[in-house]
Amino acid sequence: MNEQTITLTLPDSVFDRIKRTAQATSLTAEEVVKQSVILLLPAFESDISQNSSMNLAKISLLNDIQLWKTANAVMKNSQQKHLEKLAELQKHRSLTETEQSDLDNLMDEAQQIMLCKAEAKRILAQRGHTVFKEVEH
Questions:
Q1: Cβ partners under 8 Å of residue 55, min gap 6
Q2: Are 115 and 54 in contact (CB under 8 A)?
Q3: Does 106 lie in the same domain as 50?
Q4: Is the dihedral of CA 2, 99, 103, 93 positive or negative?
Q5: What's the domain count of the chain?
Q6: DSSP letter at 47?
C-alpha cells in the first residue's frame, strides 16, 4: 500500500488527547492519528474489494426477511473473541505473521459484516420499513 506523509498543526489540547490515547493503547501518536483518520473518513467504492462489492450488490435481491437477518447479523462469537484476543495482544507485543494475518482477516470479516448490515438497513428503509426507532426527548 502506498502511503503519503502530511504535516499537520494541531491545538495543544488535541495533541494532548492524542498522546494520552497513544499511551493508553501502546501505539505511537502517529498511529493514533492515522487510525483516527481511517475510521473517520468514509470508504469510497474504489476502497472496497471486488468481493465486497459483489456481496453488496447481491443484497438488493434479498427479500425482506433475509434483509432483516442481514441487518442484524453479528460476527460468530468465536471469531469475535479471537479478534479481541489478538487486538489485546497487539497492545503488549508485536504479533507474529500468523497472528497478524488472522487479525487482518478478522478485521476484513468485521468490515464486511458492517457494510452488509448498513446496506441491508438502507434497502429496508427504502422499502418503507422503520429501521431506526425515534428517540423521544
A1: 112, 115, 116
A2: no
A3: yes
A4: negative
A5: 2
A6: G
Range of the domain at 88: 46-137
pLDDT at residue 102 greater than cutoff 70: yes
User: What pTM did the predictor assign?
Assistant: 0.61
Residues 107 and 135 in one domain: yes
Q: Answer yes or no: is 5 within a domain.
A: no
Quick: pLDDT tens for 58-94. 998 999 999 999 999 999 999 999 999 998 998 889 9
- Residue 97 forms part of a structural domain: yes
Tell me whether residue 1 is in a domain.
no
Separation of alpha carbons 131 and 15, rounded Å: 38
- Side chain identity at 38, as an amino acid letter? I
Of 74, 59, 75, 79, nearest to 120 by C-alpha is: 59
Half-sphere exposure of 3 (CA within 13 A, CB side): 5
> Other C-beta atoms within 10 Å of 120: how many?
24
Find the angle CA(37)-CA(41)-CA(46) to the nearest 5 degrees: 120
Residue 132 domain flag: yes
